[in-house]
Amino acid sequence: MTTITMDQAANHLNQEVTINAWVTNKRSSGKIAFLQLRDGVVNFQGIVLKQEVGEDLFDLAKGLNQETSVQVKGVVQADDRSSLGYELLVKDIQVIGESHDYPITPKDHGTDFLMDHRHLWLRSNRQHAIMQVRNEIIRATYEFFNDRGFLKIDPPILTGSAPEGTTELFHTKYFDEDAYLSQSGQLYMEAAAMAFGKVFSFGPTFRAEKSKTRRHLIEFWMMEPEMAFTDHEASLQVQEEYVAYLVRNVIDHCGLALETLGRDIQQLEKYTQLPYPRIEYSDAVQLLQDNGFEDIQWGDDFGSPHETFIASQNDQPVFIINWPRAIKPFYMKVNPDNPETVLCADMIAPEGYGEIIGGSQRIDDYETLSENIKSYQLDPEVYAWYLDLRQYGSVPHSGFGLGLERAVAWITGIEHIRETSPFPRLLNRLYP
Length: 432
Ligand code: 4AD
Ligand code: MG
Fold this sequence. Notes:
This protein is α+β, with helices and mostly antiparallel strands. The chain is built from 14 helices and 17 strands. It has two domains: about 1-95, CATH 2.40.50.140; about 120-420, Bira Bifunctional Protein, Domain 2 (BirA Bifunctional Protein, domain 2), CATH 3.30.930. The strands form three sheets. Strands 7-11-12-17-16-15-14-13 form an eight-stranded mixed beta sheet. Strand 3 and strand 4 form a beta hairpin. Helix 5 packs across helix 7 (about 230-255), helix 5 crosses helix 8 and helix 5 (about 125-145) packs across helix 14 (about 405-410). The two termini are about 40 Å apart.
């Protein structure tokens, strides 16, 4: 007898099959029991008829606890009422692993309780749907960049440098030296771009940020392309095409997951339209001041209320371009049209999800970069290799970083970033 998962039911209609699963719920009357089963791919119903299986097996079915693992044998039947279209008429049940007093019951639980039981909470339909979207975004990312001739490069996670500022670093000892967990692979990706032209990375990054918001994780995954012979304008086009591609693929491949999450597909469709609007930082400040944000001054960084307001003016993600030099990292190239600003952009997602991409054109000239390293009080010895890139055939180059979990939160439409990671690392949470 073939062992299947129930998503393959259509190929086994009216045949007897074996399925390995967990019991998520059940109800029964005197003659019939309905088992709700999860095989890891889909949820489905098993029907147990007392008349067919006999008293002993029927009693066993009726007594199965939530999350007991079972091997069921049965016949695949068509069932119009289930979203799957099929159910299983059960013939036999073997208990694999018992389960007693499963802590997460069908009633509502508080967030802290669920986070403490994250290792079990992952079994829910909702978490499954979110992980499916996350997986699709990862899959589509590899596809997008491979199709466009980018080479995947893995920058190191243990580093001696701090591309995004020194305040948010996780420090560790590297034998006798000091080391940090990577905040961003960018500097290494610049070296790779000088070797291979177009490259992208996709890996874990760490920020020891004391932020406890719905957008911040301590450990998150970043996707960072870097492109030689590319100015910032061309990079913006890659960014919007990439994000629209992610949304398109999630709509096309994760229909059931989006339905489970109650995501409005019409809304998502709007995000596949290009180009995305752009606003100069200076104009954004003006817009904010004109709309009651009197506290904001030219030169200030934006907080989430500011980002949310600017995003609310559009039905698509919006680029805020050309930020003040003073609030951006040392490696960004000065904007020749306004030297107080740099050639960079943040892409702000709609619906209050905030910045999902940060990107810029990099300084390609040795003198300027060398001066910046000094004026930002960075150790020139640590950055000697990075400066080397400006000595041997330096070229204009640009790149960006997309935060995977922010993208997942936005595309799934969920409230908080903590559910986008299987085991989120949050402020004050390392368990489980
Ligand atoms: O804007 P950031 O700090 O940019 C960089 O690190 C650049 N070196 C990227 C590059 O040009 N190669 O971070 C990029 C993105 C943000 O837009 C956001 O989506 C995400 O990373 N991000 C976070 N996501 C979750 N939790 C946090 N604490 C995050 N910090 C940044
Ligand atoms: Mg940023």
